[in-house]
Amino acid sequence: MTIISGVRVVDWHMITLEPAEIAAGALENIRADFARFFLLHDPAADTAIFTRRAKWGSCEVFFSPACAMYTEFIFERHKARRSRAPALLGTTLFVGYPAAVSFLLGKSRDVASFREMLKKPQLEAAVGTQIAFLRLKPAIEL
């Protein structure tokens, strides 16, 4: 981890694949190699690979900092450079747990799925409605 002006900058790695490399199967080879490792070792939730479309049909492949010790075999075949975390917009989780998306945001807590986020307000509204039916009306004294 690098510190710049008192702010922590996480050391990600990035490989840029040209359209010809993608057509030759380089992206699928990276996915297969890392998925094999992932299934055999069951790494932590922050170990993930993300992809982004780049200009002119190329693809950027981002490796989270936790991948560094496990990706030598990929970096031997493809030139990787240090990078910042990719922007969330347009980035796709390629291999890893869904919770790894929270690391793109610089947070280490779990990120709920969109479906779960939609269920929560509906559940709270339903509970609020049920509670409203249980309230007693004030007695009027004459």
Protein traits:
alpha+beta; 4 helices; 32% helix; elongated
How would you sum up this structure, described in words?
This protein is of the alpha+beta class and 142 residues long. It is 32% helix and 21% strand. It is built from four helices and seven strands, in the order βββααββαββα. The strands form two sheets. Strands 6-3-5-4-7 form a five-stranded antiparallel β-sheet. Strands 1-2 form a two-stranded antiparallel ribbon. A hairpin with a 2-residue loop joins β1 and β2 (7-9). The radius of gyration is 23 Å and the shape is elongated. The relative contact order is 0.16.
Question: Helix and strand layout, with pairings?
Answer:
Elements: E1 2-4, E2 7-9, E3 12-17, H1 19-23, H2 26-41, E4 49-53, E5 59-63, H3 72-75, E6 81-83, E7 91-95, H4 114-134
Antiparallel strand pairs: 1-2, 3-5, 3-6, 4-5, 4-7
What percentage of amino acids are in beta strands?
15-25%
Radius of gyration: 23 Å
Low-confidence stretches: 3-8, 130-135
How many β-strand stretches?
Answer: 7
Give me the strand/helix succession. Answer: EEEHHEEHEEH
Shape: elongated
Mean pLDDT: 77
Helix content: 25-40%
Counting helices, strands and paired strands, the structural category is: alpha+beta
